Amino acid sequence: MRKTIWIICCLTYILVSCESKAQTYPDETWSRAENPEAMGWPDVERSNFTRYIIDSTNITGLVLVHKGEIVFEYGDINENSYIASCRKSVLALLYGKYVDNGTIDLDKTLEGLNITDVTELLPIEKKATVKDLISARSGVYLRGSNGGDFRRFAPDRGSVEPGSHWLYNNWDFNVAGHIFEQETKKNIYDEIESQLATPLQMQDWDRSLQEKSGNSDLSKFPAYHMWFSTRDMARIGLLMLRNGKWKNTQVIPKDWVQEVIKQRTSYAEAQKSVPVLKEDGLDLGYGYMWWLIENTNDPKLKNAYSAQGAMGQNITVYPNIDVVLAFKTNSVYRRRNSIQTQMKLVRKAVEIFDAQ
């Protein structure tokens, strides 16, 4: 019996060791694939992709990572710039540690958390939970302190029960940031540094750049804006691809990563609530502050998911092919990309990959 247990333990150790060796992570700098073509990324197709980026987009930096190594890069991938709504997906990761240890209770209501704003909440709105906020299903249609959402498609206030209707509204996300800090007694940016930037050995993270802003006359909850480089965004994507594990450390609870990318809203419901989403070029559902690529016959895109931000900020994870895409459009250059352009890039980036 003891011998059998010993053999099982040895086999388990060997399997774990093999898995660890099979997964590549960057250290202080990214490793670049010596022969991308041999990994399924033909030289001709990568050259064509470069021309497409130059001719058809305003992207300022892009990285493609396959099996933990960079197989393609374009532009300035180390400059820090505003990542717009990708910030919400970063916040979703920060939640994991504190949901796991019970510090944050996703079932707490706005009333129970003493959430008030410039405009008083209705009784029905106070019933919304933290879970409703981070899935964009709160039923609270107050204006956020910053723009860039779909509030114009909102039903009348008080007309829907919390949890019953999806609507991408910045008020939800800004309040989710406030609740994170209220419940944990931690600053969001300090948590990015301790939970993500340090363990992931981010090359360009600069705490001094991070700053909240918003119109306090509209809402007392500011937007927690963030500045990252493209190559550091790719580290976040790789962390997600590896189910929250970085080398030998479980940085984000594995179960929480799966909760984040679990469908909370289907693409059909999202498009019914916000009809303009039908024009995006990909059908997108929603999890906990991450977008889910759905209704696709392309095996490379199946199970893929994205963090997305205005003007052209994106992290897309393609689990089926072990690939991460990150791209940026630095607003200081007065350049921007439509969501349709972003979705074309999400498709084209892996069209050049030959899985054979």
UniProtKB/TrEMBL annotation:
Location of the Beta-lactamase-related domain: 65-337
Gene3D superfamilies named among the record's database cross-references: DD-peptidase/beta-lactamase superfamily
One Gene Ontology molecular-function label: hydrolase activity
Keywords linked to the UniProt accession: Hydrolase, Signal
Signal peptide: 1-22
Pfam families: Beta-lactamase
Highest taxon, organism lineage: Bacteria
Protein name: Serine hydrolase
Source taxonomy: Bacteria, Pseudomonadati, Bacteroidota, Flavobacteriia, Flavobacteriales
